[in-house]
Amino acid sequence: MNYRQTFPHNVAIYPYPRFQYYSGGKKQELDARKYLVREGDLGIEFELGKYFEPTIQYQYGDRTFEGGGKPSNRQKGSLLRLQLQFNY
After folding, report:
1. What is the DSSP letter of 9?
2. For the whole prediction, is pTM greater than 0.85?
3. What single DSSP character describes residue 28?
4. What are the residues whose beta carbons fall under 8 Å from the beta carbon of 8, sequence distance 6 or more?
């Protein structure tokens, strides 16, 4: 899904969501681990003129990896990402 809102003086914003869900295994793993991945992002990209694009993104993740070595391995976390892009 993509949305664009334009403003005067060559300013535009692009808000975006992203969600990922995966339940299953990986063929290349030795012990055939079971994976359960739930991740989501919310972000806004700003276009300030032709040459400058700052982006702010918040990401949340909840992953569970179960295998013979670690029967219950749940990892939860979040991060805030800031990006500055210069176009030439």
Report:
1. T
2. no
3. T
4. none
Number of H helices, E strands in the chain: 0, 5
- Please give the DSSP secondary-structure letter assigned to residue 8: T
For the segment 19-45, what is each residue's pLDDT rounded down to a tens digit?
Answer: 999 998 877 767 777 889 999 999 999
Q: Could you give the CA distance from residue 59 to residue 40 in angstroms, rounded to a whole number?
A: 6
pLDDT score recorded for residue 77: 95
State how far the Cα of 60 lies from the Cα of 39, in Å rounded to an integer: 6
Q: What is the pLDDT of residue 50?
A: 86
CB atoms within 10 A of CB 47: 20
| Strand partners of residue 2 | none
